[in-house]
Amino acid sequence: MADQRPGAGTRIIRWIDHRLPFFAMMNHELYEYPTPRNLNYWWNFGSLAGFMLLVMIVTGIFLAMQYTPSASLAFDSVERIMRDVNYGWLIRYAHANGASMFFAIVYIHIFRGLYYGSYKAPRELLWILGVIILVLMIATAFMGYVLPWGQMSYWAATVITSLFSAIPVIGQSIVTFLWGGFTVGDPTLHRFYALHYLLPFIILAVVLLHLIALHRFGSNNPLGIDMKGQQDSIPFHPYYTIKDLFGLTVFLLIYAFFVFYAPNFLGNPDNYIPANPMQTPNHIVPEWYLLPYYAILRSITFSIFGIPAKLLGVLASFGSLFLLLIVPWLDSSPVRSSRFRPIYKWVFWLLVIDVLALGWVGANPPQGIVVTVGQIATFYYYLHFLILLPLLGKIERPHPLPASIAAAVLPGGSGMAAPASLRKS
Amino acid sequence: MVDVAQQHLSHAHSGESRRDFLILTAGALGAVAVAATVWPFIETMNPARDTLAAASTEVDLAPVAVGQRLTIAWRGKPVFIDHRTPAEIKAAREVDLTQLRDPQADSERVKQAEWLIVVGVCTHLGCIPLGQKTGDDRGPYGGWFCPCHGSIYDTSGRIRQGPAPLNLAVPPYQFTGKSAVKIG
Amino acid sequence: MGRKLAFGWLAAAAAALSLTVAASAARAQETPPLPHQQWSFDGVFGTYDIAALQRGFQVYKQICSACHPVKHLFFRDLAALDYTPDQIKALAASYKCTAGPNDQGQMYERPCLPSDPIPGPFPNDEAAKAANGGALPPDLSMVVKAREGGPDYVFAILNGFVPAPAGFHVVQGKYYNEYFPGHNISMPPPLSDGAVTFADGTKATVPQMAHDVVTFLSWAAEPNLDTRHRIGARVFLFLIVGVGIFYAAKRKIWAAVH
Predict the structure, then answer these.
(1) Greatest alpha-carbon span in chain B
(2) How far off is chain C from B131, nearest CA to CA, in Å?
(3) Least CA distance to C240: which residue of chain B?
(4) How many CB pairs under 8 A join B and C?
(5) C117 lies within 8 A of chain A by CB
(6) Do B41 and A416 touch (CB under 8 A)?
(7) Rg from Cα positions in chain B
(8) Which of C110, C245, C246, C251 to mutate to test the interface with B (most CBs of B within 10 A)?
(9) Number of residue pairs across A and B with CB atoms under 8 Å?
(10) Contact A86 B9 (CB under 8 A)
(11) What is the CB neighbour count within 10 angstroms for residue B19?
């Protein structure tokens, strides 16, 4: 075997690799990359998010070839895509529902990180890069939603850009600057289009950094303990490639259901009415993935220390996102996984319920009980991160951790490695 | 550790082939999925329904006097309509076909001798030849002259000199009335 | 302390009461839930019923089009209703489209072509408002997708002209409609039994005409639904097979690790 002359393909790859170690890197990072052997299906959502980013970029580029970013033509150009462009309806529905799928995946990915303590040392930067990706995604999704230039597009643009008018003294000037005029209009649409095209590529760059940071110490795992040797890990390929592919196919079923059978379920009927700067729709509701932030924004109906409610609401809303950046330092517990944290495990689920409640509040008109629930839920959100997370680490008594991943997951607990023959080295 | 591997290999020989079959099937499915996904994306770049629908143009020829040339837009391109004089028809018909780069009799290029209808796009690199407006340089053959690279066409729109390889194209058309024509 | 508590309870009860009162006041303005209709295009395998589409187009053409445009429909789109190219051409030619400018710089009228959009009843929104007492008849080509409830809502509106309940104030020049938000609708009841004569002999009752025209408007809003459902079924079949095979492959590959 050893003295056999390698084929032409192999020689070309070796020639390139000697000068540009691309294939070696790919082999190292995607093929033999040692991965904890005990990852569960919640770990599928990282690669799913990457898949959705690519889907959004590709469908977006093809839509951009047909779309006209002008206030007088945008709505009709979208309808032309839906009616006249070959498969235009398919690409547009895939893009519009893709945004929802992308957010659903990323939120699950984030909550997985919170449950298993994936943000803890030495993965703090990995986590922070993830939060930056989320912020960029929200900005991209918001600007993309404006492009069809329906009623919701227009009024979402008006309301969200007006958030900046809460900034004291210079607020109104900033809003005029953002609009490029005295209302949301043609210049606004044009710049949103340019930025909506640009931001996904910035997201892609941050995703690369996210991956570099991930591969520095490898994936966290459901036990939250480090890999200590060969017996704790398996090569990424074929184990996790096939698992990811299986997960992807299951996900595609859900995605395809929305695209083909409920394409407007997650959308708002008002956005099929062309933008009318003279009339606001009765219920302004953001897309579902922004509802919790919207709920927090509306929950602040009072001023504290002379900070007006409007500014406070904006700060609380943005703060709920930026709070995530310091989570690695707010959590004082040395144990990563909730499996060994008897109290945090429950507190985590309370947070999930809390965020769902905020979503419900954001979807309903701010009257009566909705306001109260919103205020309690907002208060609890901050309580969770600012008080409970630092406090729990001090008072909680974690369960004993297993000696190693292999010891915990393999029968007999002696640590039996994967067969050497499967270890592509 | 090696023992485990050996054991695995020997007892799973039939399993190996099933595994190969599964991986082949999975790979084939993946390939079909990719192909089926790529297709709609490519298709979006083909002409859309509205573009195809506007593909025919009707023209009223009544106001075009003998010797006059008219330019109309068809599929976004200029179409030259030439109400030819008897002298121009005669010139077009008397040419020795063997001398032509793209031999074609004038009778093959028109449906009614006095009306020449050609796409006004030079077959070299897509410029629009001169000759439609009075005072334009029509070239030595009284047809059209392309200013980009000097292609010269005769009164039948055939290439006579210059780099263009083919005669000016004849669009599909039909006379719908005594003096009306539908192009496309 | 006890008194304070009692006062608190009283305040809470009063607040709850005022909430209930406010809610019942709001309910008078509320619309009843939309009755769900059977649509041929419902469900995973739903398709448009061509006969209903043709009848619906007839209702639109003879009744709705007096006030409402279908801005996003072109004559050529009617091929989906099984009209032949010649029928579409003849239909288009019966409308006048503005073209130009001509050699004299004037806009002029010519018979419409299949590639033209179907002209609306008014040249612009302002003209439409002026002719309708200040109310703008909405574009119907998107209306089914642009309203909560979709086809059920539009059907309910068309059938919702009932006598106003006692004590309800119907604004001058408006009409009472059970399903319209606020109940005061600017549109007079558009349909009446026998208002059109269907070529296929279907009896032109109000619910029948409403059902047909809503089918037509659903198609106008989402003309690619048939294709979408058909492709969707294939994609689902493919993915279900894929899930099975990838799951089997995953099990096989992981067998050695577990």
Answers:
(1) 99
(2) 20
(3) B29
(4) 34
(5) no
(6) no
(7) 30
(8) C245
(9) 52
(10) no
(11) 17
Contact between residue C157 and residue C217 where contact means Cβ atoms under 8 Å apart = no
The domain limits of chain B are 2-44, 52-183
Tens of pLDDT, residues B55-66: 678 888 988 999
Nearby residues of B65 by Cβ (< 8 Å), 6 or more positions away: B83
Computed from CA positions of residues B117, B120, B125, B130, in that sequence, does the dihedral angle turn out positive or negative? positive
Residue type, C8: G
Please report the residues numbered 40 through 59 in chain B whose beta carbons come closer than 8 angstroms to any beta carbon of chain C: 49-50, 53-54
Tell if the pTM clears 0.95, that is, is over it. Answer: no
User: Are C158 and C216 found together in one domain?
Assistant: yes
Q: Most confidently modeled of A44-58, B127-141, C163-177?
A: A44-58
Confidence band for A4, pLDDT divided at 50, 70 and 90: low
Distance between CA atoms of residues A95 and C152, nearest Å: 27
Domain of C162, CATH number, reads 1.10.760.10
* Residues of chain C contacting residue A37, judged by C-beta atoms under 8 Å apart: 257
Using CA atoms, how far apart are residues B8 and C253, in angstroms rounded to an integer? 12
Q: How far is C14 from chain A (nearest CA, A)?
A: 14
Closest CA to A265 of C148, C37, C220: C148
Does residue C201 sit in the same domain as residue C214?
yes
Q: Is A65 on the interface with B (CB under 8 A)?
A: yes
User: Could you tell me if residue C59 is inside a domain?
Assistant: yes
Ordered by where they begin, the domains of chain A are: 35-160+200-222+234-278 (1.20.810.10), 285-395 (1.10.287)
| Among the listed residues A122, A100, A118, the one whose alpha carbon sits nearest the alpha carbon of residue A109 | A118
Does residue C146 sit in the same domain as residue C253?
A: no
CB contact under 8 A, B22 and C248: yes
> Would the CB atoms of C243 and A253 count as touching at under 8 Å?
yes
Q: Which of B8, B44, B51 sits opposite A91 (nearest CB)?
A: B44
| DSSP string covering A287-331 | -GGGHHHHHHHHH--S-BTTB-HHHHHHHHHHHHHHGGGGHHHH-
Residue A243 CA to its chain's centroid (Å): 21
Same domain? C153 vs C233:
no
What is B52-183's CATH topology?
Rieske Iron-sulfur Protein (2.102.10)
**Structure ipTM:** 0.89
What does the mean pLDDT of chain A come to?
Answer: 93
